[in-house]
Amino acid sequence: MMQHRNFTRVAHAKSYAGGRLRNPFFNHEPRHINPWLLLIGTGVVGLSLLACFLYLPFLQYNQVEVTGLTTLAAGDVESAVNEVLNHRRWLIVPGRQLIFMNSTKIIKELNTSYNFASISLHRAGRHLIIEAVERITQVTWLSGDKAYLLDLSGLAVAEATPEIVANVTARKNAAADVPVASGVQPTMPIISSSKNEIVTLGQNILDVTRLTNTLLLDTSLRERGLVPREYVFDDATQPWLTVNTDSVALLVDVTQSIPLAMNMLDAYRAQGDTSFTTLEYIDLRFGNHLYIKTK
To answer: Which of 19, 99, 204, 266 is the most buried (most CB within 10 A)?
Structure first.
């Protein structure tokens, strides 16, 4: 019993000496925590939590997928998106962070490079899915050693891929072996300007009248067994163009009636010359008059 009493006395003495016991009949000064230590500790904890939130791999995009493309290569568009994601935002935030990803910059960069009709971004876990709708392209515009795709309004919506350039160049030169280009119709008209003007994406190359009548002319010639290889404007603002076909060159005013020009061509062919082997060109620019030049 005495041994237990001594142990209790010693234990309480140690508690009192350690400051863990307080006599309720005496006033004691409250303990104060150093505010600087509290501020520093709170800051360290906050920064640690923020760093974990920003830099943990499972809180970042690890894959980009582009859907909805018809003529453009998905890999090229995905590379452009990854280029944006690989740059930090505000110097410290990883570009792939799920919440702080700069979607505005991604859309701006893609429209600068490809001029899409619409772009939408979606998240599926850690996958970034981009749905892109290309503008409907109707013709290929050649300018020097480059090619561009034009929509129905004559707007340059995208620069052609190397495989498209190879395809249209072979068709223009009537090569025996024409490489296939995905997303490009084998009969897509090829238009160029003899001046080889510099083209920028989003630039209006041809007005609607010239483009619409050129497409009508292309259809009309193919219906008559003539295969157009290239439509050449001396200047994109001028009404006249030269159509180089497999048989003969045609001079046409695409601001005038295309059916009338085709009627004049039909009238000439009705006289018996259907192969045009002796002709250098046929001039259809003057309404109900037709002029020819022999070789």
So the answer is: 204
